[in-house]
Design brief:
alpha+beta, Jelly Rolls, four-stranded antiparallel beta sheet, 6 helices, 22% strand, binds succinic acid, binds nickel (II) ion
């Protein structure tokens, strides 16, 4: 993948849309052959024994009904690291977020399984992340569709402008509370949620504070997405417990850096 691709994918309008609304869709971020490769490596990685990666719930579990999730795939699978460390994708995150440098926090495959599928409730991502707020205001995720998605199989919805709402608590995705009841109604933007249908190989980016939701999967095939979380260079550890930082011996206020949190893009 080449840096010049970023210019083709990212217009000034897209950057402005992201900045105003807290999310943006970018079509065809992967070529046909990249999509086929990533679909097959994610399928293999979901089945492979985990070494550094972690599957967060098993079939039958309450969380599994919302998401069959495997975290940190890049550390076990070179074929996934190729995309998670990819400079084209990271450069999109750099430009959208307006950061000087972007580090990887972690990746995760998010599959919505057929059968007893539950929606992903409205939530913000930032309250789960162990990052000091002042250092990580530009943190964001890319959600890469590995299947065509619409309301029948788990496409996402976003609440425009909700990325300005700070200091909410994390939602338990398996036993959700209503995020709209957590914040004063005055703080919630009067915008309408936007449903984002996409073709496989397209993606959305969303800010760590943007309210988002995903429909349940009512089809008979898994809905597959690869998500990469990026944080601005200079982000520091808040000390909050998190699966990614468990056992790393990070001290509160340490900077995220080194080979586990690589710098994947920077302004030249
Ligand atoms: C989903 O894929 O269902 C949810 C993704 C997210 O919460 O970022
Ligand atoms: Ni989320």
């Amino acid at each position: 993948m080449f840096k010049s691709d970023t210019q083709n994918l990212l217009s000034k309008e897209k950057i402005e849309f992201y900045s105003n609304n807290g999310f943006v869709k970018i079509d065809n971020v992967l070529s046909k052959s990249e999509l086929a490769e990533l679909q097959s490596t994610v399928n293999d990685a979901m089945e492979a024994p985990a070494h550094f990666s972690v599957q967060t719930d098993q079939k039958g579990g309450a969380y599994y009904k919302v998401l069959n999730q495997k975290v940190n795939l890049w550390r076990d699978h070179k074929g996934i690291a190729k995309y998670v460390l990819d400079s084209k994708l990271a450069d999109l995150a750099l430009k959208l977020s307006g950061s000087d440098g972007i580090r990887l926090f972690h990746d995760h495959a998010l599959l919505k399984m057929p059968g007893d599928s539950k929606p992903t409730p409205w939530h913000q991502d930032f309250p789960y992340w162990p990052m000091n707020k002042e250092t990580s205001k530009k943190a964001l995720s890319i959600w890469i569709a590995l299947d065509d998605v619409d309301e029948s199989n788990g496409c996402m919805m976003f609440l425009p402008e909700s990325h300005r709402i700070e200091d909410l608590k994390p939602i338990n995705l398996a036993e959700p509370t209503n995020i709209f009841e957590q914040s004063s109604s005055a703080a919630i933007p009067k915008t309408s949620p936007v449903t984002v249908r996409m073709k496989a190989g397209s993606c959305t980016f969303h800010h760590g504070l943007t309210f988002h939701y995903a429909h349940s999967n009512k089809t008979n095939k898994p809905r597959r997405a690869l998500v990469i979380i990026y944080m601005p260079d200079g982000t520091t550890f808040s000390g909050k417990r998190h699966i990614i930082t468990e056992g790393l011996n990070l001290q509160k206020d340490d900077r995220f850096q080194g080979e586990l949190f690589p710098l994947v893009a920077k302004n030249s």
